[in-house]
Amino acid sequence: MSLAEVRRGQLWAPRAWIDGCWQERVLLRIGDDGCWADIATGVAAPTDAEGLAGAVLPGLVNAHSHAFQRAFAGFSERRESEHDDFWSWRERMYRVALRITPQQLRAVAAQLYLELLHGGYTQVCEFHYLQHRSDGRPYDDRLTLAWSLADAAADAGIGLTLLPVLYERAGFTQPRLREDQRRFATDADAVLALHHAARDSGRAGLNSGVAIHSLRAAEPASIERLVSRLGDVPIHIHVAEQTAEVDDCLKAHGQRPIEWLAAHAALDARWQLVHATHAHSDEIAAVARSGAGVVICPSTEANLGDGLTDLGGWLDAGVPPAIGSDSHVTRDALEELRWLEYGQRLQLRRRNVAAAPAQGQPSSAARLFEHAVAAGAPAAGFARWGLQVGARADLLVIDESASPLLGVPAERLLDALVFSSPGRPFRDVMVAGRWALREHRVAGAERVAADFSDAMAALWADA
Predict the structure, then answer these.
(1) Which of 14, 160, 379, 435 could bridge 63 with an S-S bond, Cβ 3.0-4.6 Å?
(2) Of 155, 310, 326, 399, catalytic
(3) 316: exposed, middle or buried (C-beta count within 10 Å: 0-12, 13-18, 19+)?
(4) Which string of DSSP letters, residue by residue, matches 264-314?
(5) Has 268 been annotated as catalytic?
(6) Tens digit of pLDDT for each residue in 321-378?
(7) What CATH number was assigned to the domain covering residues 60-380?
(8) Burial class of residue 302, CB neighbours in 10 A (0-12, 13-18, 19+)
């Protein structure tokens, strides 16, 4: 069933997370467009409404994904030499990038997107830089690999924001791509064409924006050419993830990456700065003034040894972080939120760093969850998101029979969801007014898993 096949009718939940708190006895009506037409609280269950089996949360946006890297998860956890870091990981990851076929990409992405549904995500932003044949020649249809991702999202029933990537050089002082980056090559005109083709495809559940791989991978003139020709669509960029990138940017431009963007890229609410790991306070302030957003990917940043961003600085500046699973070593939104907080606790040797009791927000889990909901909307290209009229009809039904939630009072439910680590917290998941997950199951999951297993066997046959 595709996202175009919209459910119409009424749902009733014993409680739902609305406007930053639990509301009781909630009636939700789905419109013909797959969006929330009406939401009312304090309502007795009507006889013509479907009763939901637990408390309800809004679905979350996964604001940063490289789907093909799901095929690499777990394959880089050994060190064969004296040193291992992001750059050596990247060399090994290119093995998958150079080998994967369109059919294998669809199989890998479909498995990933099913896992993301189980993990609480109902929309995924695909930072898509894998464009060409394995030898670097363009496909006859330049969107061949993009359609593989769109087909996979339709297979799973998740929403997709496709972000074709500007990627034209190997580094600040390297004017061309390396041979092992040949599948990534694009310029501003190509990215714009890819964006327009995806936008105009008419596929249900498909949004489109653009991405710039990084400052090291794109000429300033190309960035300006691309951005100047865009309307109100998301613009994502990897920035300040690694200290080596910061050092190289200082050498090339005399400014740090975020500092350069703030000074030269006319940052505004369309921009999403992915990772922003190594950000100074003045850079955070500049981003806040611009209205741009940030996307933090805690599990990948930990896996790669990137470092920790200044979460308190972003929150104090009024820049709510979206979350992403990036390389997909974890496919669980709650684990990303948990490690967003835990990283700060380890660094600062304090607890409940994200909480803000002076602002009436004593719960770290609630504050981080609310920020992820709010920040995910612009990252994915939505004006509205969550349990509000006009937003897409997405929701998560909590399985309150899961053992870590047994006996947890309603007001502590979100705290326990994030910090008590339930393995299967969501019983049902709705996307655009249709059930994508029912009673922990997705229709066709066995076929998707079999296709994924076949793709992995082919990709790693000679490993």
Answers:
(1) 379
(2) 326
(3) middle
(4) HS---TTEEEEE--S--HHHHHHHHHHT-EEEE-HHHHHHTT-----HHHH
(5) no
(6) 999 999 999 999 999 999 999 999 999 999 999 999 999 999 999 999 999 999 999 9
(7) 3.20.20.140
(8) middle
